[in-house]
Every structure is written in C-alpha cells, then in structure tokens.
Amino acid sequence: MNISKFITSITLCFFVAFAGSAVTLPSIPTWYALLNKPFFSPPNWVFGPVWTVLYFLMGISLYLIWNKSVKIKIFLIQLALNFLWSLVFFWLHQPLLALITIFMLWISIYLTIKSFYRISKLAAYLLIPYILWVSFALLLNLFIVVLN
Questions:
Q1: Is residue 95 within 8 Å of residue 89, measured between CB atoms?
Q2: Which domains are delineated in the chain?
Q3: According to the 3-state scheme, what is the secondary structure of the chain?
C-alpha cells in the first residue's frame, strides 16, 4: 500500500467536498428553503452523512486505480463536475443549468465506472452508491425545476 497516494486520493475527494459545502451551505436556510420540493425530498441533515461516505468511497476507488498507474482523467472530470453542480445549483441559483450539469456528471460517473471496471472491479463497485445517489439527485433536481 502506498500511504502517500492513499492519503492524497482521500484528501482530493474531501477537498472537493469541502469546496462544494462552502458554496452550498449559505443557500440552505435561505434560497433552498424557499424552493418547492417534491414529496420525496429528504431532510437536509441526510445529505452531509451520505456525501461523506460517498466521497470516502470515491477516494478509495481513486487510490485503487491510481496505484495501478492508470490515467485518472475521467475521474478528475467527474470530480470537477461534482463541484460544478454545487456551484451552479446553490451558489448561482440556476436549477435548470444545474440539471444539465448533473446529467453530464451522471454520464461522467458512468464512464468512470466503466473505465475503472476494466482495471479494478472493486474500484468500479465502490462508485455504484455514488451513481445511485447522483441518479436520485438528478431526479430531485428535475422535480425542483418543474415545481419552480
């Protein structure tokens, strides 16, 4: 095990998590609270723990691939899109543009899983909860666009 690469992988994912939180949290009690949300929208407190687990799994997945000296460009693209969605939705208050962004994010996660699967099945499987959660978030984003 390469401890340095492992720590870097986890840290990179949590850096994006913290950056996303920085642009998200100010809008939760204000702008987001005023939006019409679908009945299946979870309470706000659910998002933090879910995303914490997902970012940790993403970091492990990245490490498993990076440790095999495989290019990680697609992973970095999805990570950037992950942050971009938070920026567009919560900071810019643009749910429709965020819907387009999260769709692109979903595609990039799918391509990441597909790419990782060829090298490490475990790395790919660790991203399954992530794509499932983003699928749910995409649906939630769609309903917010429709309801508002």
A1: yes
A2: 3-147 (1.20.1260.100)
A3: CCHHHHHHHHHHHHHHHHHHHHHHHHHHHHHHHHCCCCCCCCCHHHHHHHHHHHHHHHHHHHHHHHCCCCCCHHHHHHHHHHHHHHHHHHHCCCHHHHHHHHHHHHHHHHHHHHHHHCCCHHHHHCCHHHHHHHHHHHHHHHHHHHHC
What does the pLDDT look like over 33-72, one tens digit per residue? 999 999 999 999 999 999 999 999 999 999 999 877 677 9
Task: Of 81, 71, 72, 64, give the one whose Cα is nearest residue 131.
Answer: 81
What is the C-alpha end-to-end distance of the chain, expressed in Å? 49
pTM over 0.90: yes
